[in-house]
Amino acid sequence: MQISGSIFPFFLLAFILVSGASSAADKNIDFLECLTLQFQKSNSESDSIYTPQNASYSSVLQSSIRNLRPASNSPRRPFVIITPEHESQIQAAIYCSKKHGIQLKVRSGGHDYEGLSYISETPFVIVDMRNLRSISIDTEKNTAWIQTGATLGELYYTIAEKSKTLAFTAGVCPTVGVGGHFSGGGYGMMSRKHGIAADHIIDAKLIDANGQIRDRESMGEDLFWAIRGGGGTSFGIVGCI
Ligand SMILES: Cc1cc2nc3c(=O)[nH]c(=O)nc-3n(C[C@H](O)[C@H](O)[C@H](O)COP(=O)(O)OP(=O)(O)OC[C@H]3O[C@@H](n4cnc5c(N)ncnc54)[C@H](O)[C@@H]3O)c2cc1C
Questions:
Q1: What does the domain layout of the chain look like in residue ranges?
Q2: Which positions fall inside the FAD-binding PCMH-type domain (predicted)?
Q3: pLDDT tens-place string over residues 148-177
Q4: Which fold has domain 135-240?
Q5: How far is the CA of 229 from the centre of ligand 1 (A)?
């Protein structure tokens, strides 16, 4: 009697765990199917999608992680990493994560001290901006458009190639990403005189939770103010700035 009394709750518990795990797995599969379909609709290559079964998954995941502690203590890894090459792929990721209730993390340079761009306690996917890193500089107007997957080092290098007199005030570490850095502030060697990076942002393209691409005018001044210091990830995915 004592033995069967202790076995029964064990089976009950085991059933609940297995049942919960399979519904989470179903959600993940639904998300992946949704993403593949959306990519097909926009004629996108699905080689921008990495699952743990993909041979490059681990190297893509670890490539920009600067603080290994949060990653090694994290209970889970992303079940998909998306490396968009076009804004439509970001829109697809947002659409499918909303539809299937999956948490979406954005990563630019991966330098978040707490690993916020690549760890989570709930099932999640990463949109990694690594392939969106073009920098276009207008030396007549002294302005630039920078895709947020670029690093500070790439920005400084490109400015120096174009001009011996222009510069941009931002952080000192060349591998920090523009996406997290500019949307969080950006303090560096020139800040005493010129302020922080966010002070010099004059426009941005933000993809919001509905997948709409907003610029400064269409997002409004309040939101534009918020993404220059409040951290972009609370408001959408900053595509370029
Ligand atoms: C070695 C090192 C040196 C540093 N040096 C400086 C310095 O000199 N000056 C300074 O001010 N700071 C410095 N920092 C801090 C750094 O600026 C911040 O951690 C910054 O948020 C990192 O941006 P990231 O894109 O590299 O990081 P990520 O980890 O990719 O992102 C950081 C946060 O921003 C979000 N995010 C990233 N990209 C986007 C996007 N496109 N749209 C919306 N949200 C986005 C992420 O989800 C995450 O929450 C340094 C950090 C490290 C590790």
A1: 2-131, 135-240
A2: 74-241
A3: 999 999 999 999 999 999 999 999 999 999
A4: 3.30.465
A5: 11
